Structures are given as C-alpha cells and as structure tokens.
C-alpha cells in the first residue's frame, strides 16, 4: 500500500512537472524567445554593422566636435626644450615686475592646452588658496583688455568651456608661457610670452 502511494505521488509529480514544462514552452513561444535566442547566436548582417559604425562616427564627429580628423593640425608648433625654457624664463622675469598684491602663477602651454583637448589644469595649491570651491565662470582678460568667459571646474581645478576659444583667438601654441594674475575674485589678467619671439 505504501509503495502504491509513493508510485502515485511520483506519477502526480511527473505529471505536474510535464504540465509546467509545457506551460513554460508556450510562454516562451508567445514572447518569441526561441527566435530571439536564435538571432543572438547568428552574427549581425554586414549592412547592420556598417550602419552602427556610421552612427558611432556621426556621434564622434558631430556630437561634441572632438574628432581630431576634422581639425587642421598641420599648423602645430612643437617647442624645443630650449625654446620652452626661454619662454618660461621671460615669463618669470615679467612676473617679478607685477604688483605683489595680486597672486600670480605661470602656466607653460602644451599641445593639449592649445590644439588637443583644450583643457587647462591650474595649480592645485593656487586653486585651494584663491579660487572658488564650486564651479564658476572665470573671466580671462588679455593685454588688450578683451574679456573671455571660461568655465572653472572646482573639483577638477581647471578651465573647460571657453578656454578653447581663448586659446584659438590668441593663437596659443606649444611652448608659450602664460602668466595668470588674479585681479579680482573671478578674473584673471593673462600675459602671453610667445615661444617663438
């Protein structure tokens, strides 16, 4: 009798399991899961891959204008170590003549500041001591008193948006040395020492 009950229980369990399997198969078919699984096993058609590459290229080229393929880099100037040192020396001489009441620092230009990523990192100690602790607009004033607003990113301690326009407008190149003089809380007077002069 006990053996017969166990046999019935096993049979009912097996029937229940088969019923569940059939229900799951129907659910998967209603959701098109077998076709989806099959499509994942086969590689995408070449035309689809080309479309994806075109879209990726469009985002890089037109998204933020960062694609260097479309930027004319033929006019890049690479400063020699001697020319770079000379520009820094001239900048230090000019810096020593400026009013001491306004804090200053010298920033030698690199390709990434003038033709590449257009990001200008500022000295950490200077930022901690004199610049705002949150993102602000900082104005750069050139020697002709023309003003250029830039975005100062406090956490990254550097100039972002607006710096590119300033660098291009002033034809900055690798090796130029800039003196930044903080004349107001959010204003720098910028003196440019050209590497090729």
UniProtKB/TrEMBL annotation:
PANTHER family: B3 DOMAIN-CONTAINING PROTEIN OS06G0194400, B3 DOMAIN-CONTAINING PROTEIN OS11G0197600-RELATED. One of its GO terms (cellular component) is nucleus. Residues 105-196 form the TF-B3 domain. The keyword rRNA processing does not apply. It holds the Pfam family B3. Keywords: DNA-binding, Nucleus, Transcription, Transcription regulation. GO terms for molecular function: DNA binding. Gene3D superfamilies: DNA-binding pseudobarrel domain (2.40.330.10). InterPro entries: B3_DNA-bd, DNA-bd_pseudobarrel_sf, REM16-like. It comes from the Eukaryota. This is TF-B3 domain-containing protein. It is found in: Nucleus.
């Amino acid at each position: 009798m006990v053996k017969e009950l166990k046999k019935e229980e096993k049979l009912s369990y097996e029937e229940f399991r088969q019923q569940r399997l059939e229900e799951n198969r129907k659910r998967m078919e209603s959701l098109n899961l077998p076709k989806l699984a099959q499509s994942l096993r086969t590689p995408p058609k070449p035309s689809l891959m080309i479309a994806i590459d075109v879209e990726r290229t469009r985002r890089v080229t037109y998204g933020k204008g960062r694609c260097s393929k479309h930027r004319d880099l033929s006019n890049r100037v690479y400063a020699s170590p001697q020319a770079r040192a000379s520009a820094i020396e001239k900048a230090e001489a000019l810096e020593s003549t400026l009013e001491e009441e306004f804090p200053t620092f010298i920033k030698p230009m690199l390709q990434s500041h003038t033709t590449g990523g257009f990001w200008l990192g500022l000295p950490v100690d200077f930022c901690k001591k004199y610049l705002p602790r949150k993102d602000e607009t900082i104005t750069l004033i050139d020697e002709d008193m023309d003003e250029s607003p830039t975005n100062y990113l406090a956490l990254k301690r550097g100039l972002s948006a607006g710096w590119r326009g300033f660098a291009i407008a002033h034809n900055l190149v690798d090796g130029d040395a800039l003196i930044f003089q903080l004349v107001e809380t959010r204003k720098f007077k910028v003196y440019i020492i050209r590497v090729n002069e």
